[in-house]
Amino acid sequence: MDFATIAAQLNAGIILPEGIILATLVLVLLIDLISGKSAAQTLPYVAIGGLLLAVVALYSQWDVADPIAFLGEFNGDAMSIAFRGIIALSTAVTILMSIRYVQQAGTSLAEFIGILLSATLGAMFLSGANELVAIFVSLETLSISSYLLTGYMKRDPRSNEAALKYLLIGASSSAVFLYGISLLYGLSGGETNLNAIATNVAALEAGQSLGILIALVFAIAGIAFKISAVPFHQWTPDVYEGSPTPVVAFLSVGSKAAGFALAIRLMTTAFPLVTEQWHFVFTALAILSLVLGNVVALTQTSMKRLLAYSSIAQAGFVMIGLIAGTDAGYASMIFYLLIYLFMNLGGFICVILFTLRTGTDQISEYAGLYQKDPLLTLGLSICLLSLGGIPPLAGFFGKIYLFWAGWQAGLYGLVILGLLASVVSIYYYIRVVKMMVVKEPQEMSDAVKNYPEIRWNLPGMRPLQVGLVLTVIATTLAGILSNPLFELANSSVTRTPMLQQAMISHQQPTVSIQPIQNVDAQI
């Protein structure tokens, strides 16, 4: 076999965006090694440039004829392009908000960016992985990098505690997920490609279908950990509170997007015969996440813990699109995650700015902030109101699309619960906004009374200002321009053969319950 044939089979050009990010990672480390601290001001912009170049490369592959690479291990279809773009953009914004934070902590910015880019690579490969080994290696690349980032502030006991909790719970979830996919490997007769697994599993005898259900439960448990779904959310509040805030921002968007990409690909490709069962499991996860995430958020006193429970609730909203299993459902998931990128990261930028200036993230300390910092107040208010779903901001249209997709799919109870959960979430978001805006000057908190002079010319502050302005503008305009963005998301779904095939098979009558009845009869 000659080189040209091997190259054609590998089709390595599909992972050009990941190659650009890998080259950027190596370049960042080399510049740091050669120039040392003198290059600290340029390294973030090198990394952001590489990420934006990767997004351009993703866009250029939108209409690629053959998206399958590495003999079926990676699928660069339109859906994976959308998710990989969201992940790359989330990392670019995260780097903008990291510069001042990491430098003030006295740690190496180059190493932080290097680990963050490694996590980005893992998340992007996970979004397109089409084979069990590739899925697990990508998942562990993302997970291990996340553990390192969580404990990056070595001198902070809270960061060390968060990293330890995240490591222990994450290792357990990885083991559970690995057991689930190992069952798939065995039941399919030694296949690792998802399409081959689906074909072989369809030919199983009735008595073996119980093994498929066990594999399904274990696989969903591993995915639920990544997307912070109840009851696999225990790590989220503690890790969000103790970790460096930029790391939390990346985990809330980049890691969550990769988890949902994995959920869509694994469920629709490897488990088509038990669609009703995984719909039922994700429905239970969505209900629990919506209820617990919003109710517990009402009692929080820390902004980071508030955003942690908000993140749990947001996962419940996104799962409505997954359970719907239609074109509109998957498109609304992609659209919501795209706008969630801007409104959630914008909120975290505001939390970082307030923490850098006051040294606290307690909600009560935001009282009267409008009197001292109108820009920060406006930015945080817009981002929180968008997360709550207040029109005409982007979050309102994101939830409308999700609820409409769920209603069309017959998920009436789940949509009504989602509407009620949105009303609850508006209360705790508006509580923060009211505290910043309505408080009289004499009711200012001590932190706001001693608020330092606003200086954007300090090292690393200008990128924070740019990130804040960009995310607020994007959150506002994404609501006004929601239709073109939704058309883009819908196009990514209609151009993905995997999803179209899954919807066709779902519309056909299934006999997925029959094997369970046979097992009961045998017992």
Notes on the protein architecture:
The protein is mostly helical. The chain has a domain of 179 residues. The chain contains 22 helices and 2 strands. A two-stranded antiparallel sheet has the order 1-2. α4 runs antiparallel to α19, α13 packs parallel to α16 and α13 packs antiparallel against α17. The C terminus is likely disordered.
State the total count of DSSP E strands: 2
List unreliable stretches of 5+ residues: 509-523
Order the strands across the largest sheet as they lie in space.
1-2
Tally of DSSP helical segments: 22
Q: Please tell me the overall pLDDT.
A: 88
Largest pleated sheet: 2 strands, antiparallel
Dominant shape: globular
Question: Which strand-content bin applies to the residues?
Answer: under 5%
Alpha-beta classification: mainly alpha
Give me the Rg, rounded. Answer: 23 Å
> Which sequence of SSEs, written as H and E, runs from N to C?
HHHEEHHHHHHHHHHHHHHHHHHH
How far is the N terminus from the C terminus?
53 Å
Characterize this entry briefly:
The protein is mainly α. The chain has a domain of 179 residues.
